[in-house]
Amino acid sequence: MHANDFAAESLLIEQEPYYQPVGSEIALFEAAYASQIPVLLKGPTGCGKTRFVEYMAWRLKRPLITVSCHDDLTASDLVGRYLITNNETVWIDGPLARAVRCGGICYLDEIVEARKDTTVVIHPLADDRRCLPIEKRGEVLKAPREFVLVISYNPGYQSVLKELKHSTRQRFVAIEFGYPEPELEKTILMREAGIDGQTAEKLVKLAAMTRSLKGNGLDEGASTRLLVHAGKLIAKGVDPRAACRGAVAQALSDERDMLIAVDELISTLF
Amino acid sequence: MSSSPPSSEPLPRAALEERLEEQLNPVLTSRRTAAGLAAALASLGVEQQDFVLHWVTVVAKCNAELAYQFAALAPQALALLGPEGTEEWLIGAMDVYDRQGLYSASATLKALPSFVERHRSRERCARLEEVAPVLELFLCGLSGRRLRVAAAEVATTDTETVYLPPFLAHFPTRAQNFQLYKATAAHLWAQSRFGTFNLPRKAYPAGEHALKLLNVLEAVRLGACIARSFPGLGRLLEALRARAPLAPVPGLERLAAPGATVADSLALLASAIHHLDDPGWCYLGRLQPERAFAVREARLARERKALQRALARLASEQSPPRPTAARSAPPRWSVRIEDEGMKFDARVELDGKPVSAPPEVHHLIQSIVQDLGELPPEYLVPAGDAGVSKGAVRRFEAAGKAPEAAQGEKVYLYDEWDFRRRHYRREWCTLRELDVHPATPEFAQATLEKYRHQVAQLRRAFEALRQEQRRLRKEPFGDDVDFDALVESFVDLRQGLELPARLFVEHRRADRHLAALFVVDMSGSTKGWINDAEREALVMLCEALEALGDRYAIYGFSGITRKRCEFYRVKRFDEPYGEAVKSRIGGIIPLDYTRMGPALRHAARLLEAVEARTKLLITLSDGKPDDYSDEYRGEYGIEDTRQALLEAKRLGIYPYCITIDREARDYLPHMYGEVNYTVVDDPGKLPLKVADIYRRLTF
Fold first, then answer.
1. Are B24 and B60 in contact (CB under 8 A)?
2. What number of helices (H) and strands (E) belong to chain B?
3. In A, which residues are within 8 Å of B135 by CB distance?
4. Which residue from B203, B202, B304, B219 is spatially nearest to B260, judged by alpha carbons?
5. Taking CA B179 as the corner, what is the angle to CA B175 and CA B185, rounded to the nearest 5 degrees?
6. CA-CA 20 to 30 A from B372: which of A105, B37, B59, B283?
7. Facing A159 at nearest CB: one of B140, B512, B697
8. Average pLDDT of chain B, as a whole number
9. Regarding predicted confidence, which is higher, B444 or B144?
């Protein structure tokens, strides 16, 4: 098999992922897609950015290739590299090149985790050139109309080393994600975790409590994802307090005082 | 713990007797043998035997008689106190021996029962000192205004601080007493959250007895409010109330209904005062409206001003300058509020159009609504043109002449941003760079001594980060073969090119390429322990940064008027951290005012000259920009500082602020941006926090 052979169809999302729109993000994404502008999703962890991309991939019927960025990610990890098989060198596309070739959605999750020199390879793809130079092969991939680049970034991290470069961010249309409104979050929890309205409401309240601790000892409040975890445990018959302790409190902090405080907050609700 | 080789089986009686005889020989006689002691100890487990033999050996070195008495009482003490308590009891007696001799020491040992009594009451007692941080977080999580927790003999609240007794031993276990703390704190929180003080001062009864009964009625109302939002907490309070049931009062159920207010409690009090009994619920504390009103009024005045200022700023940011005719009509603000249970939402509108207001405006609105139950329209009239009179400007012009520069001393001139003109005042501020007058390095030594354990921890943590390695690919030498490079070179070879030499992966310490400049507020307001906290924080920071190997510099700033801005050298970038720097940190003293703009501009200029990929400018301050003359105070100073920070950002510098000003949330987001600051609530924590904040910021 040629190393480049892969079925773009296998990356299609066939079943509609569950996604609750929060505002006009779907229309915004579709307009950006139609105008061939790349998209930047901003927002705290666990608020639904990845799910949104999955949903859009399903909606637009495009293959989705996701890369979780980390600080060892090199440009060739994204673009591609040569491999040796049977005494022969074979070029293999990286996820970015694959997505360009098949006109898919390339989603670079937590882009700030990648090294700055890696981030630069997306620049020509992200402006009106819309191309990906593959230096090692002397090839320039031209992105088809359907290709779209999506990156995500959490501006709440207080780290100078994890800032997104202006030259990068200014190429994107940004969609800001926050935590959903309480009513919506409740609906999401009932649907995702399969719990009743009353339990969902309590979990939403718990989230509000931890979110008001942000900046007072917590870097982040509980995300919708953590609530879904807690809800799933409760639906499996785990005692709600134990479920919240395991899925929310412990996930938020290791600090003793904070754990006790969150624990006490849990017990005010259940 | 034991000096003997570890054994897995308890020692038999004979062996114990032998070991005890060896230690206690001087005080044994034919009638007073070790046999009885050995018999009692033989029934103990290995660990307990080891414990006793260890301590017998230790005590016998001071006094054999005391050791004998200890051995005799040890089994009983261990049974009653466990090893930790027993150790405490014995060490107490040895202290007495050192100071007062054998007679008193044996009396202390023999007073075992009363020691046990004291120990147990302490065991069950919950101490505020230990639980206050948890309670503060807990109250913060319950939402509403942030409350501080402080110790006082009587539990009460002034609507900003919750006062709780230093310890509680009402119940038999510590856990139960902690729950009582929690219940008391929650009740006091609810007083300020659900409007116990929301009526005019004169509406409240004056007598102590009537206030006590009002507190009881309010407990019923607040208990219901709490139960609606927090069922678990509601149950806890209800259980505490059920321990001393309230005699039936007609109309009481009205208080538990949604929508009941403090006015309902007062009305019921008026009608039922004669047949109402105080059930003495343990979590109520004391209701002190006088105290609450004093604090509340000061806060309302402060928040009203802050809101008006914020709205004025928001209005100027919202609209492009309006035509003159329109400008004469003041902007019309309106706010729609939704406040139920835990949910608070305010929709701010300017001239009928929704405006996205920054979080600090929401906090102010929420706090005001919490106090007044509504947002009165007069709070929405934006403040005028910062109220600067011509007279004030003239006084400012006259104040202080630029000092004659001493020989060889550099003087810098900086522009200042005038937000009203939307223009710079050219070369408006005169800044001199001076050395801090060094004190002795003793301050640094004392700090290192005071935080000995934390310093060690800090150094270890930062050293660990320093050792964080990065994989460098395509190196000429290294620890591993770089397979990617090898494959590529194979391709090159095939194509008839030369084999490249860089085929290795090397693990090398991460090159951070980072330079940080710390600017410390040396204004007069830092006098006292804030200044100490700042200096301690700097010492700790230096320790951490030395372990990390980052490049850093420290400067202080102060001054009076635009003509005398002073910038004090504490540590330059190229200067090693040593005695001289330590002495200068010790020499940081509170001086005059805080004109922040020129100091930040100068700091940015210094940082600009440093070669580093990432440049950090960290301000350590205790409050807003301020100067002698009301011109720089308030909006003018905030806007100039903000402008100075924007200039720094344009130079690729990342500004950050660490402050201990509790009101900082009102203005810092505007100056530094949403995430670029930290408020350290307790100046005492500053020394431990600063290094930690730096670590979080740079990893």
1. yes
2. 25, 19
3. 261
4. B219
5. 145
6. B283
7. B697
8. 84
9. B444
Instruction: Please judge whether A264 and B679 are an interchain contact, meaning their C-beta atoms are less than 8 angstroms apart.
Output: no
**pLDDT for A228-261, tens place per residue?**
999 999 999 999 999 999 999 999 998 888 999 9
Whole-number percent of chain B with pLDDT over 90? 32
Which one-letter amino acid corresponds to residue B58? V
3-state secondary structure of B167: strand
Average pLDDT over residues A128-157: 91
Contact A81 B484 (CB under 8 A): yes
Q: Which tokens sit at B14?
A: 């004979």
Q: Do residues B562 and B430 lie in contact, with contact meaning Cβ atoms separated by under 8 Å?
A: yes
Mutate to test the interface with A, among B131, B140, B225, B617 (most CBs of A within 10 A): B140
Task: Give B30-99 as a DSSP string.
Answer: SSS-SHHHHHHHHTS-HHHHHHHHHHHHHHHHH-HHHHHHHHHHHHHHHHHHHHHHHHHHHHHHHHHHHH
CB burial of B625-653 (b: ≥16 within 10 Å; e: otherwise) equals bbbbbbbbbbbbbbbbbbbbbebbbeeeb
> Percent of chain B having pLDDT more than 70?
91
Q: Which residues of B, range 204-243, sit inside 8 Å of A by Cβ? A: 229-233, 236
Give the mean pLDDT of B53-62. Answer: 91
Give the one of B230, B233, B699 whose C-beta lies nearest to A161's C-beta: B699
Distance CA B571, CA B555 (A): 7
Q: Measured between CB atoms, does A34 come within 8 Å of chain B?
A: no
| A-chain residues near B514 (CB < 8 A) | 160-161
Q: How many CB atoms lie within 10 A of CB B666?
A: 22
| Residue bearing the bigger pLDDT, B118 or A224 | A224
Least Cα separation, residue A252 to chain B (angstroms): 14
How close, in Å, is residue A110 to chain B by CA atoms?
Answer: 15
CA distance B594 to B604: 17
Q: Could you write out the DSSP letters of every residue in B484-532?
A: HHHHHHHHHHHTT-PPPS--EEEEEE----EEEEEEEE--GGGTTHHHH
What torsion, rounded to 10 degrees, do the Cα atoms B481, B485, B489, B492 define?
A: 180
> Does the complex come out with an ipTM higher than 0.90?
no
In chain B, whose CA is at the least distance from the CA of A162? B699
Asked if B614 and A160 come within 8 Å (Cβ–Cβ), the reply is: yes
pLDDT (mean) for B132-138: 93
Pairing of strands A173-176, B126-127: unpaired
Q: Which residues contact B496 (CB under 8 A, 6 or more apart)?
A: none
CA distance A264 to chain B (A): 7
* Size of chain A, expressed as the number of residues it contains: 270
Instruction: Enumerate residues 170 to 189 of chain B having a beta carbon within 8 A of any beta carbon in chain A.
Output: 182, 186
* Range scoring the smallest mean pLDDT among A212-221, B11-20, B396-405: B396-405
What's the rounded Cα separation, in Å, for the pair A83 and B484?
8
Mean pLDDT of the region B224-238: 94
CB-based contact (8 Å) between A70 and chain B?
Answer: no
Residue A72: per-residue pLDDT? 78
- Give mean pLDDT, residues B50-57: 93
- Find the residue in B nearest to A264 (Cα): B138
Q: 3-state class of B555 per DSSP?
A: strand
